[in-house]
Specification:
355 residues, Rhomboid-like fold, 2 domains, 12 helices, membrane, EC 3.4.21.105, Peptidase_S54_rhomboid-like
């Protein structure tokens, strides 16, 4: 059967073009890691009034700590979440990669994984495991680096930046090849709904909308770089529309122009990664130049704690054996913790108490 036009997210009458293996594996691994995170969190042992306490060790933090049913910020940090303190202060450069395997809460995980399966499987069927996997992980890493410029001492996790990278890659593929794709309206409607849902979730603690924005930007650039040479050869089909952006059968001048644009895109990607790594690892705070940026990632509310850069996050603590009493100086709130914690975790406990 002849393929008249290509479909990105919605399968045509002739069915999918390939198989998907990587995306389901990533989704399963992410779900299992969330369960492990909740097991490590162990809310009942922290002495909190846990949400859904009947789940035992897997019960959730109080809604004032995590309003969408998830673990504490300190647990997310222990599992590999990012913050300016851990990456810039303690030089734990692996965190921008590990954080994309974690999720802040149940709602975040469900929206992320369902969207990943819907978008990622179709892209992997169309363009293959290596290209889609590269875009997913590189976009997630780039989104994490961009997020580090704004989150300060808040803990942020999530694969949403990587998912936005795949969505950016869809845009980079469809827009320059507009006449070669069917189902554009449902495709962009689907992407819009996913983006809106994740933006709303990004206004709650531990999920960062700057990671979404950074992932989308890198996804568009990487999508052009990886998909530009993977375009279908339309000349062998009955209907073969041509586009000056993707018709590689043109004269040598057009070919050279396309090759030049591709090289510039790759160089730009490299420069952006290098620049963001330098700024993130130096601890540059983008909020110093943007008065509204803090609210773009987490809207302050009396119902939950955003954390942040408040200068009043100063605590005193007393330790006896495996019991620690932590008290915030500014609001005199106290909390007892059981266990032996590193200094980074104690700092995060202090942020939670003082917020």
């Amino acid at each position: 059967m002849l393929r008249k036009r290509q479909r990105i997210l919605y399968v045509g009458a002739d069915g999918p073009r390939g198989h998907s293996l990587l995306v389901p594996i990533v989704a399963i691994a992410s779900f299992l890691l969330f369960v492990i995170t909740m097991y490590v969190n162990n809310c009942p042992d922290q002495g909190h009034s846990c949400t859904l306490r009947g789940l035992g060790r897997l019960s959730f933090q109080p809604l004032s700590d995590n309003p969408l049913f998830g673990p504490s910020a300190s647990t997310l940090s222990r599992m590999g979440g990012i913050s300016s303190d851990t990456v810039a202060g303690q030089h734990q450069i692996w965190r921008p990669f590990t954080c994309i395997w974690l999720h802040a809460n149940v709602i975040h995980m469900l929206v992320d994984l369902i969207s990943l399966l819907f978008v990622g499987i179709r892209l992997e069927q169309e363009f293959g495991c290596r290209k889609v996997g590269s875009i997913y992980f590189l976009s997630g890493f780039g989104g994490s680096l961009f997020s580090l410029l704004f989150i300060e001492n808040r803990v942020s996790v999530g694969s949403s930046g990587a998912l936005f990278g795949l969505m950016g890659a869809v845009v980079a593929e469809v827009v320059p090849n507009w006449t070669k794709h069917e189902g554009k309206a449902p495709t962009f409607a689907t992407l819009g709904i996913i983006a809106l849902l994740l933006f709303i979730i990004g206004l709650f603690p531990h999920v960062d909308n700057f990671s979404h924005a950074g992932g989308f930007l890198f996804g568009m650039l990487l999508g052009h770089a990886f998909f530009a040479r993977a375009r279908m050869n339309w000349s062998k089909y009955q209907i073969a529309p041509h586009s000056r952006f993707t018709d590689f059968s043109g004269d040598s001048n057009i070919k050279m122009c396309k090759a030049f644009i591709w090289v510039v895109t790759v160089i730009l990607i490299f420069i952006l990664y290098l620049l963001l790594m330098i700024l993130a690892f130096k601890g540059v705070n983008g909020n110093d130049h943007c008065s509204w940026c803090r609210k773009f990632s987490c809207i302050p509310s009396s119902h939950w704690n955003c954390g942040g850069s408040s200068g009043h996050n100063i605590c005193k603590y007393m330790i006896q054996g495996v019991t620690m009493l932590l008290t915030c100086i500014s609001n005199e709130r106290s909390q007892i913790y059981y266990g032996v914690y590193p200094l980074s975790s104690i700092k995060q406990f202090c942020v939670e108490l003082c917020s």
